[in-house]
Amino acid sequence: MKPGSGAALLGVALVVATAAVIAGIVIAGTPGEGRRQRLDDVRARDLRGLGASIDAFWARHERLPASLRELASDTRSALAVTDPESAEEYEYRILGERSYELCAVFARSATPQRRAPEPFSVHDVGSNCFPLSTRTADP
Hints:
Elements: H1 5-28, H2 31-61, H3 68-74, E1 91-94, E2 99-106, E3 126-133
Antiparallel strand pairs: 1-2, 2-3
């Protein structure tokens, strides 16, 4: 081996390792990006759970709950009513006899991944509100 060939080999290995790290970040995203995605997934799951609980509340009481606190106190299982990061309560507004709105603040924008996206899978960065109505049949 010639003198300096070890340094050249080390240089090549360093370039290859750096390229692999950069490619990994480009493909998988940064750790912070992954954390934001996981938190947004939790927010969407929480909103789906709230919607299902509101439907069940309607079926039992034939009215919408006055607040998320009332909904949570009426539910037998644990119900997530606060944002996983800020611990602020999700927004809930009654719009009509059977219609309401659930709102959350998302860290990333999301587009539908399937042909028929569910309401919480499409959102922008920031505060997003989703108009909904109870799914039970009319009496």
